């Protein structure tokens, strides 16, 4: 059963884990015609699959009959008769106690939103700032991967064009991390990278950081706990921002509080710049563009995910943090709720509401793959927990796309080789979620699951991968297909790469952005082609076509 739960942990994270055409409405924020990559891209669908299957030899993990038997014969009866009733009862008792006790004093990052304006005279002009990019959270698991990627791809030293620095709370930990990366890469120049000491609970340290750089990229989560001050001061100082959060309610609260300020200062803030949710956000936009080549609007999308990878302690800590601070989540939900009947994700730059509607068609149980393509024939699909996050980001991207299609149906699922694997994965997620939600078993799960700073081994990340196949249908029934393949672990190695390239897009590729002015954007809405071009130059494979063959 423990093995089953651990399998659930792995899949729980890894398999979660725009300007399409001339606007049909008037915008006060300037949209620009895309000047980056043009379709078609150099690879075709078959060559991407061939590279994944035959060159890289990537395959989803096969859990097998033993894990299936343990889940079906032992796990399901135990969950139904013992764990679920116990969890419902203990959660109800715990909730009653919390309601009677009232909320604990929440940290300033949640309770206090600072509305005072910064003195413009004290803000360094963008073209005079010392750094192009600052990486916050470098001593964490994903932060270290991001720093490693930066060093490998863009190097350092007097001749390096990219000016970057790293930031975090502990100078000792940061220097130890840089030394470790330097020894691994044989790059002594990495020790020359500037170190900025930043404590997100100390506003002055955050202020100094954001005023020194064009863009901040951060892996320091949970973002509800450590991200609010960074977002606030980036918005006020006109500093671009990217993160890898999956915390939708927090992001909505940030939008509600600081978007008007970001418009004034020109700060472009883009969350969800990792596994959550770049692959799916870009897929929907690119399918829409491909169908517009045929004169049609996208009306339905199905994303089928093939993947393998691990989970880090930081990701798990975010889940625990959200559960442990339930009142703060309620508070964030309140802050992010509809204002004057307007959902902030549906809000357009001019303040009006998007007329587009994105409907969820996310599966809740295991089912046979209904997609007619030969690749998915006789295969099974399982729900993806992270699809609920991806769905929200897709909604935001579609709202900013000025799509003429009023309704889009979005579906996403994990693909497995067999019913046994699909069921074992699905039940593993349910079992893991129940054990984490249960207030009695939660402390035990904290002890046995990875702690922050720990995660998959290098070999596990190298063996991991993510492949998202998107199928789109247009208004007249024309079909389009995309495939986006990341050859390493999607949740960590590839997430670090996506975050870094998103930050560089913000800092260096402003002439390729689809919007000129500041504000909160989804990755696809602001920098779809500029970002995709960067990813394709650094290991990602992508292809798309019209008229999917049945």
UniProtKB/TrEMBL annotation:
Q: Which Pfam families match?
A: Sacchrp_dh_NADP
Q: Report keywords, A-Z.
A: Membrane, Signal, Transmembrane, Transmembrane helix
Name this protein carries in UniProt: Saccharopine dehydrogenase NADP binding domain-containing protein
Q: Which InterPro entries match?
A: NAD(P)-bd_dom_sf (IPR036291), Saccharopine_DH-like_oxidrdct (IPR051276), Sacchrp_dh_NADP-bd (IPR005097)
Instruction: Report the transmembrane regions from the record.
Output: 76-100
Write down the superkingdom of origin: Eukaryota
Family matches, as PANTHER family: SACCHAROPINE DEHYDROGENASE-LIKE OXIDOREDUCTASE (PTHR12286:SF5)
